[in-house]
Amino acid sequence: MSEQIHDLAHIGHAELLTPSPEQSLQFFVEQFGMEIEAQAEQSVFLRGWGDYQRYSLKLTESQLPGLGHMAIRAWSAQALERRVAAIERSGRGLGWIDGDLGHGPAYRFTDPDGHPMELYWEAERYQPPARLRPALKNVPQRYVGRGAAVKRLDHVNLLARDVAANRRFAQEQLGYRLYEQIVLEDGSETGAWMSLTIAAHELIYVADHAHASGRLHHLAFFVDTREELLRAADLFLDAEVPIEAAPSKHAVAQGMFLYVYEPGGNRVEVTTGTHFIFDPEYQPVVWSGAERARGQAWGVKTIDTFHTYGTPDVSGKATGPPIPPTSAIPALPDQPLHA
Amino acid sequence: MSEQIHDLAHIGHAELLTPSPEQSLQFFVEQFGMEIEAQAEQSVFLRGWGDYQRYSLKLTESQLPGLGHMAIRAWSAQALERRVAAIERSGRGLGWIDGDLGHGPAYRFTDPDGHPMELYWEAERYQPPARLRPALKNVPQRYVGRGAAVKRLDHVNLLARDVAANRRFAQEQLGYRLYEQIVLEDGSETGAWMSLTIAAHELIYVADHAHASGRLHHLAFFVDTREELLRAADLFLDAEVPIEAAPSKHAVAQGMFLYVYEPGGNRVEVTTGTHFIFDPEYQPVVWSGAERARGQAWGVKTIDTFHTYGTPDVSGKATGPPIPPTSAIPALPDQPLHA
Amino acid sequence: MSEQIHDLAHIGHAELLTPSPEQSLQFFVEQFGMEIEAQAEQSVFLRGWGDYQRYSLKLTESQLPGLGHMAIRAWSAQALERRVAAIERSGRGLGWIDGDLGHGPAYRFTDPDGHPMELYWEAERYQPPARLRPALKNVPQRYVGRGAAVKRLDHVNLLARDVAANRRFAQEQLGYRLYEQIVLEDGSETGAWMSLTIAAHELIYVADHAHASGRLHHLAFFVDTREELLRAADLFLDAEVPIEAAPSKHAVAQGMFLYVYEPGGNRVEVTTGTHFIFDPEYQPVVWSGAERARGQAWGVKTIDTFHTYGTPDVSGKATGPPIPPTSAIPALPDQPLHA
Amino acid sequence: MSEQIHDLAHIGHAELLTPSPEQSLQFFVEQFGMEIEAQAEQSVFLRGWGDYQRYSLKLTESQLPGLGHMAIRAWSAQALERRVAAIERSGRGLGWIDGDLGHGPAYRFTDPDGHPMELYWEAERYQPPARLRPALKNVPQRYVGRGAAVKRLDHVNLLARDVAANRRFAQEQLGYRLYEQIVLEDGSETGAWMSLTIAAHELIYVADHAHASGRLHHLAFFVDTREELLRAADLFLDAEVPIEAAPSKHAVAQGMFLYVYEPGGNRVEVTTGTHFIFDPEYQPVVWSGAERARGQAWGVKTIDTFHTYGTPDVSGKATGPPIPPTSAIPALPDQPLHA
C-alpha cells in the first residue's frame, strides 16, 4: 500500500447556479442565515459564521440551476503543484485561472462526470466588519443566529453516471479517502462518501439515474447541534420553505439531515454530526442494496425524489423541484441580480 | 384542610419600568426576540411567539427601573369576583380600572410588600398580521427565531421585606400553591416559589436584604429547550449583553437559568424546564440555609449580586447593575419613547 | 357558560395488559428505564424517575394486550365525591373498590366506549430506597439514565367507536378541557385531545376504524428534552426495539414523538413538548381531514399502521403488531410472571 | 515555511494510574459508561462506544494517580519510521517495545517534561461480542447509553514546567499543529492547544505552577452533544461524583466542559464541541493574561483548583483532590485489581 496523500485540505467553496437569483439570495440570507461578503456582476459571495475564508458559497445567476464549480484548497504551494501535476497527467486538466474573489491562482479541471472543479492555495482570511466582530477571537465572525444560522459549507454531493470512475479519480488524483459506499448486489457502485479529514464526508458521489452529466445532488451546510437542526425545521415550516425530507438520521455516515429546496430549485441540506474517522487505514463500509432498502437509521424510508431529482432537472417536467403541493416556487427566472 | 382555590389562571403580563426606553426596547426585540404588538404614549407592548394574548410584557418609560405592575388572569368572571371580594376583605384592594390594551376591567391591589398587581378576566386573543401568521393553526404566531426567541413570560420574581407575609397573601387571597421555600436555621423565611399551575414556579418572593419595598428581582421568559438557552448565551456574548449568571441549573425548582441585565438595569432571565407538580397535596420542599449554601444543582455558587441587586437599585452606588467591567450600560436615561 | 370543573388532577397510572409479561417487564425496565416498585401475583408496578406516586404503570399478565384500566387522581376528597356523584348520574358507574397498591378507595366506571377507569384521592407518596435516593430533595427519585429514562406517564390515547360521545363524557363528567380535535369534512369527529392541566394533552380519543370497543392506541411517557428522545431512538435501534414511527414532530399539539411496540404488542410512545395551554377560555383547534392529510408538522406522512393498529388486535391476522420484517416479536405468550 | 508533517494520526489511548483501582474501574464503567475490553495483571482496558480500536483507556493500579503513558498512532509504517528517526535525533528516544494489548511494536520516548509517550502503527480493530454488536455497520459498537456514555478519548491535557519547550517538541518532532496558546504579558507561555486533525485540540500543555514534572492535568472523553453533557451532570449529581467544574463553555477552543474527579484522584472531563480548524495555514490564537482573566466563554470564572491541582498531587496535603466537603473519596488505595 502506498502512503496517504495529504495534499488537499478541504473544499473552500462551491458555486451554486440559480435562475431566481434575488429569491435564492434572500433564502440564503434569511433562511440559512448567511452573510453577504461581496457582490460581483452576476454573483453574490455568502458565508456562514464559522467560515475562516471570506465565503463558502458563490451564488451565481444562470439559466438553469446546478453546480457552477467547487474549489478545493491545498495544504501548501508545493502540495498544490503536486496535485496539479497529477491531474495534468490524468488528462482532465483545463489550466490555470487568475483566481477569484478571496483566493489566488486556481487550477481548473473536471472530474470524469464533467463537474467543474478548481484547486488553489492562496486565500484571504475573513476580516469581519465592526457589526460582525465576535466577542471571542478564535471565531471568525459574530454569531447572529438568524434563520438556520449555518456555520459553514460541510459537503458537496454530486450526481454521476459512473460513480466508481469519479470515486477513483477523487481518491487517486485528489487524495480523498473513501469512508463508505453502496455497492448493489449486481456489483454496480451507486454511492461513495469521501473525505480529506476526519469528518465523515466532504465529497459524495451518487448515481445519476437519469444518466445525465455534471449534475448536483445537493450542497450541505453545517450546524453544531441536532437541536439547531430541529429548530431549522421549525423555522422553515413557518417560512414556507419547501421541506423535501424532515429531520432524521442517515444510516450512511450517521449524519442528521434536513433537506429543502432553495428557490432556484437546488436541493440544499442542513446537516450535523460528529461521526469522525480517526483510523488511518479505515476499511470503507460497503452497503448492499438490501441494506439500503431498510431506510435511514431509525427506519425512515428514503424519500423517492431523493433518488430522482437533481439540478439541472432533466425530467422533462415543468421547471422546479418536486415540492409538496402546498408550497410554491416560481417557475420562471426572476429579475437579474446586479451588485 | 379546605379545598384548593382554582380562581386564577396565570400571570398575563408584567409591566417593566425602564429609564432607557429606546435601548430596552431594542434589547427585547433584538436580543429576546420579542415582537412589538402595540405602542402607546410611554409604553410599548411586547410579546413572545407563544403568547396567546396580545402581549406579556409592557415596557414603560420611567425615571427608575423596576416593576410597574403585574396582572393575573382569572378562570372566569365569577372567579374574578370571588378573588376581588377576598382581596377587598384583606384590606389591600385599590379598586377597578377600565382595563388596558388587550384586556378588560381590572381590579388593582398591592401585595403586602407594595407591588402593584391587577386581576382581570376579559382578554383579547392575539391575531397575527400576515407576516407573523404561523403554518400550524395551534400556535398563535409564526416562529421567527430572532435572538433568544423567547416563547412567553414564565415567572415573576419579587423582592420582599417579609417573604412569609407575601407568600401567605398569595396563597390565601390569590390561590397560589406553595411548591418550594427557603427557611433559614433561625426560622426566617427568605424565599417562596409558588404557582397556579403544574409549572414549577410562576410567582416567587425572595428576601430583600436592603429592606426596601416593592422591588423587582427579575422577570423570566421561557424557551422550549436547554439548547435554546445555551444558544441564547452564545448570542448574548457576541451582542455584548451583560451576563450576570451563565447557563446552569437551579437546585430550587430544577429550572435552567441564564440571567442578564437589560439596558434599563433590570435583571431578566431566559429559563426553561419541565419540572411539573402534579400532586394536588404537594408538600412544599423546604431548603435550609446550609442546603442553599451548597450552590446550584451542579455545584455552581450563586452569584453575589443575585442576593444584593434589585430594581430600583437602592445601594446608593452609581446608576446601573453590577455588570462586568467590559460591558457598558448607559448611566443616564436616553431619549423619551414616543409611539 | 358554566364554570370550569377543577375536580380531577391528573392520570395517576395506567394498567397495561401483556401476553408476554417477562419480556414486557424487561422492556420497560431496560429500554424505557423504569424501576420496579412492587410486584403482585400477576402484575408488576413500574415508575419513571419523576413520578411522585409509587408507580404510573401497572403491567399485568393477560391473554391479550391492551388497557387494563386507567386511574385519575382527584384534587381532594370532596372533589372526588362530586365526580363520583356525576358519574353515577350518568349511569356509567360501577362502584367502589378498596383501592390498590399505593392508593386508597377508587370508584370504577367505564367511558362510553367501555374502557375501564377509576377515580381516587388517597395516594402514597413514593419513598425511594437508598440506592434510588436523589441528591436534590425536590425530585422523588435518583436519575439513573438507563435506556430512554422516561420521567413519568404523560398521556393515554384510547381508540373509540364514537369519539364525540367519549369526548363529551370526559368533558362533562370528568372536567377535561378540549384543546384540539379532528372533525372531517363530513362532520364526523375522529380525534379529541384533552387535558386537566396546561399540558397539551393527557387523554386522547381517536377513531377506532375497526369499530371494536375498549381498545388502546398507546401509552406515552415523558422525557424532558428533544435530545433525549433522539437518544432513545439511537438506543432502540441498537436494542432491536421495533420502531413504528421515528422521531418527528406532531402537528396536533406540537409534541415530539417516537412510537415503538413493546413485546406484548402494545404501542408505546416516548414524548416531549412544552406546548402549554394557559388560556382559561381556550377555543379548541379543529383540524379538517384535508389539513391532517398534509402529515405531521414537518411534512412527515403519518404511518399507515397508526390508523389501523390498536390493542388488542382485531385484524384477524397473526398475533403481533405490524413490525418491520427485520425485527422479531414472539407470537406466543411466554412464561407467567410471578413475584 | 516548510511543509506540514502528516505522519501521526491521533492519540490511540492513554494510560491512567490509580491508587483505587476497583473504584476507578467502577467509575469508568458506570459513570462514564465505558466497556471493559480486556483485563491484565494490574490493568483494565476500557473503551468508549465509538472507539475503533480495542480501547482508548488503560487503567492501571499504582501507588499514585497520574498518567502512565499516552500512545499516538502513525499514518503508516513509513510515517512511523520518520517520526522515530526524528525523535531519536532529538535525544528523547527510549527505544522500541513489543507492543501492548491491541497494538504492535511501539517506540517509547518522553516529552521534555518527562511524560512517557509511545508511537505505534499496527493496531487491531475492535470486534464487538454479540451483546455489543451495533445495528448499523459503520459504528464499532452498540450504543448502550449507560452513564455519561462517552464515545471516545478526545484529548490529553498535560502539566509542564516549560510549556514552550514541550509545545515546540510536539510541533517539530510529532507534527502537531498549534491552534491556540496563552502568552502572558511578561512573555511566558502558559498554555498550548494542539491537534493532528481538524479537531480543536487533541494535546494540551498548561503550566505546572508547582514546578513538578510529568504530571497530568486531565483526560477528556467526547460525547456528541451539549445535551449529553448536561445529562452527564445530572447523572453525576445523583451518583455523588465530585464535580469540580459544572457544565459551561470554554473560551479557548470553544468546547463545552464538565470536570469531575474519578476515585483515583485524577481529573477527567466530559467534553463536546465542533470547533474545527480547516485552515492549513492557521495562525494560532494567542490569549493574554488579561483576556484569560475574563473567565470562560459566558463569563464563568475558572475554578481555582483548575490552576493548582494535578496528578500526582504535590501539594503536601492529604491525599485526594480538592473536592466539595459533601463528597467523599477514599484516602487510601483499596484492594488490588486482578483480572
Topology:
Four copies of one chain form a homotetramer.
Chain A: E1 8-18, H1 21-31, E2 35-39, E3 43-47, E4 57-61, E5 66-74, H2 77-90, E6 93-97, E7 106-110, E8 116-120, E9 152-160, H3 163-174, E10 177-183, E11 189-195, E12 203-207, E13 216-222, H4 226-239, E14 243-249, E15 256-261, E16 267-272, E17 285-287, H5 289-292, H6 305-308
Parallel strand pairs in A: 1-4, 5-8, 9-12, 10-17, 13-16
Antiparallel strand pairs in A: 1-5, 2-3, 3-4, 6-7, 7-8, 9-13, 10-11, 11-12, 14-15, 15-16
Strand order of the largest sheet of chain A: 14-15-16-13-9-12-11-10-17
- Shape designation of chain A: globular
Q: Give the number of DSSP strands of chain A.
A: 17
Total number of helices of chain A: 6
Instruction: Name the biggest interface.
Output: A-D, 47 and 47 residues
Binned, the helix content of chain A reads: 10-25%
Q: Mean pLDDT across all residues of chain A, rounded?
A: 93
* Radius of gyration based on Cα positions of chain A: 19 Å
Structural class of chain A: alpha/beta
Multimeric status of the protein: homotetramer
**What string, H for helix and E for strand, traces the elements of chain A in order?**
EHEEEEHEEEEHEEEEHEEEEHH
Strand content of chain A: 25-35%
Report the biggest beta sheet of chain A as strand number plus sense, adding barrel if it closes.
9 strands, mixed
Low-confidence stretches of chain A: 324-339
Termini gap of chain A:
51 Å
